[in-house]
Each structure stands twice: as C-alpha cells, then as structure tokens.
Amino acid sequence: MLKVDNVTKYYGDLCAVDNLSFDVKNGEIFGLLGLNGAGKTTTFRMIMGLIDDYTGTITLDGKKIDYSVTDKIGFLTEERSLLTKLDVFEQIKYYGILKGMKESEIEKKLDYWLDRFNIKEYKNKKIKELSKGNQQKIQFISAIIHEPKLLILDEPFSGLDPINVELFKNVILEFKKKGTSIIFSSHRMEHVELFCEKLVVLVKGKSVISGYLKDIKEEYRKKNVIVKGNIDVDLIKKIDGVVDVIYEMDEYIIKVESNDIVPNIFKKISKCDNITKFMVEDASLNEIFIAKVGEAYDE
Predict the structure, then answer these.
(1) CA 62 → CA 5, 57, 119, 287, distances in Å?
(2) What is the Cα–Cα distance from 198 to 35, expressed in whole angstroms?
C-alpha cells in the first residue's frame, strides 16, 4: 500500500503541495486530478523519490521510498521520455536493467507485450520511426516491464485510438487484479470514471475533493434528469430547483438542485406526450470537477 501522510512541499515561497494525505491500497486504482500547475507532477516526483526535501511521510508497504524501493515503481509520464535514436529493444532493455532485470528476462517479457499490443514487428525499429500511438505503447511497456508494485499512469491514453484505449484499459485492470496499486491521472474525466474508486482533486497544491467516487457523487446533491419525448421546456424551467434544461442528442437534460425536485418534474412530464425515457443520474465527475475547482479558485 502507498501512503502519503501530511505532505507539504515548498519551492521558495511557493507552496506546491499543501498538507496532502491519501493512500492507495493493493489492487486499487486511485485518481490524482487537477489542472496544470495544481501539484500533481510534484507529488509524482516525491512518490518516485526524485524530490525528498518535503515535510510529512511517503511510504510503500510501510517503507520510506528510497532507491531500494523505487525498483518496485513503474511510471508512465505525460511527456515522452523515450530515447528516440534507440530501437525498441534497446530502449526497453535500458529501462529493464535500471530496474534490476536480466537481459534474457527483459527480452522474453518484451516479446510478450509487443505481441499483446500488436506491434511485434517493431522490436528493432527506432523509436523515432514509430507513430505517436505506438510510441505510447512502448512507453507503457517501459513502465510495466518489471511488473511494478506501484504503477503511476499520467495521461496513459494520449495519442491512442478507441481500440487501443480499450487494450490499455484491459491491461490496467489486469494489473489491478494482480494486486498492483495504481495512480491514474487524466484531464479526461470520463476515463477517470472508468477506473477510479477513490480520488483526490488538487487546486494550488491543496485537496479540494477527496474520497470514494460514489460518496463524492452522492454528497454533490445536484442531479441530471434525462428525458426523451415532447416536453414543455418553458414549463419545466419554471419549477423551483431546476437549474437548466439542455437539448442534446435527441434528449433533454434537466439539471436540478437535488433529488427532492425530481417528483415535481415527473408530475409535470407525465402529462406530456410520447415520453419514452425518464431517468435520474448523478452529476458527472466532469461537472463536479468544474464546480469544485471553480469554487476553489474563487476563494
């Protein structure tokens, strides 16, 4: 288990991370979210042991993270970190040896992953000759080749088409099933909702949302009522507690302040013609993120 406990990091007078605490259990996928400059990269670097001048503690399985522990960590960075003049085998061999693996073991596992990602013909191709999506696959392989205990994924789906996103997703879930602790970071909230059971949202280094996703959605009282059919939009907008009515993809999305408003909406809509859908949904993580981050910046 990864445990981050009351961690604060300053760069001069700038507080990059402010009293941050969270834990990631074995076999759990945790979301670390925030706008650019929120403190995510600094947090990753502290977890990786690249920054050690901070207050608080960071441990993996109860042990302070140092060079004896970092071999158990895999990190896929948002920025490309590949050596483009090397070929794929040379690149992965380089990362594998840094993680204490033997060359024969590296090649065996590389062959498996190249086949798994449908790029086995690129083993001896130079990195610079690969497409952006295939470079992302190689970068992902470099993060998992040693079967890490902790896997940090920063924008893992960058440059991938929907088929390869699904392929990555299946691999990530396999590592979860094997007990790997996973930190997942993305600006695409729909991707976060696919994976993350718990999350933290940072604003200027401070946590503004923290906890289990299901609890966060429950505590955020605003809901969306999805309706398909002929409705009187002006009439619905006059109901107390209705925030907005949006027409999208042949459906109406009625945004309400809370579940308490839903019976009044149902009463009005039940009198309309040709209603084929009426469904209440929690607000999306994207809506919650925008609202909470906006509130924090306004303070």
Answers:
(1) 12, 10, 38, 36
(2) 18
Q: Which pLDDT score is estimated for 297?
A: 56
pLDDT of residue 65: 87
Q: What is the pLDDT, as a whole number, of residue 139?
A: 95
**Residue 148 near residue 100 (C-beta atoms within 8 A):** no
Beta strands (DSSP E) in 213-250 are 223-228, 242-248
The C-alpha atoms of residue 220 and residue 295 are separated, in whole angstroms, by: 13
Return the axis-axis angle of helices 162-177 and 132-144, rounded to nearest 10°: 0
Q: What is the pLDDT of residue 257?
A: 92
CA distance linking residue 218 with residue 44, whole number of Å: 29
Query: Which CATH number among 3.30.70.920, 3.40.50.620, 2.30.110.10, 3.40.30.10 corresponds to the domain 221-282?
Result: 3.30.70.920
| Residues 2 and 182 sit within 8 Å (Cβ to Cβ) | no
Which token pair is 101? 């693996």
pLDDT at 159: 84
Phi and psi dihedrals of 57, rounded to 5?
-135, 145
Structural domain spans, the chain: 2-217, 221-282
CATH class of 2-217: alpha beta
Question: In this predicted structure, what is the pLDDT of residue 1?
Answer: 93
Contacts of 247 (CB under 8 A, 6+ apart): 233, 253
Say which residue the tokens 């001048």 belong to: 53
Contact 267, 261 (CB under 8 A): no
Task: Report, as ranges of residue numbers, the positions in the chain whose pLDDT lies below 50.
Answer: none
